[in-house]
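Figure 2 data, in text form.
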Amino acid sequence: MDYKNLTIVGTSHISKKSIKAVKEAIASISPDMVAIELDKRRLPALIEKKKNKSNSLPSITNIKYIGVQGYLFSLLGAYVERKLGNITGVSPGDEMLTAYKIAKKEKRKLALVDQDIQITLKRLSKSITLKERWHFFVDIIKALFGIKDKLVKGFDIAGVPEEELIQEILKIVKARYPSIYKVLIYERNKVISKNLFILMQNHKKVVAVLGAGHKEEVIEMIKDREILHFAQNQVKNS
């Protein structure tokens, strides 16, 4: 997805196709800035995990920083991604590491544009409602008994979902898990769009590697920031 001097590569975190898409985008666009959906904590952790070929789950010591619910959510997320990664043959986050390695090898500038993971999980721990916990329990039971939602049937975990399917999934998450949607998607998109907007002002070509579910809203937020930025400049110059 292109917008002015920004190209967003929407990815699946466990897809070989996403790794290929990242390589092709950087090679064809030759950006002076590569931005990735990671933060200063997750990138070193991802590099270390890859170096040691480890599939270790989040440490229990993280509870004091992110809360019990945030920890349990990160634990479940890491477990699910690891299992799906075993099926596709790709470790979670390999496409982000690919972008990082290319930027480093080709001496391109690199930016980490996501919100600090501890802030996200701490916010998540405080935000999940009792109703959402119940929905979560019900959905896990359905998964254990092999009951599939109509959106899940035919879902290709080896590829990147079509935009229409992504929007349908996001709509369901927003309705069924509004707090989780707000913290894991909306609030992070605000941070990501702000960081990308700044990068766009200071670089000729920016390639951003983001999860496919983020790209549409991030672009809309960038457009809103441009309108606000223009209005503020008009006031200053009047």
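Caption note: The chain has one domain: 2-237.
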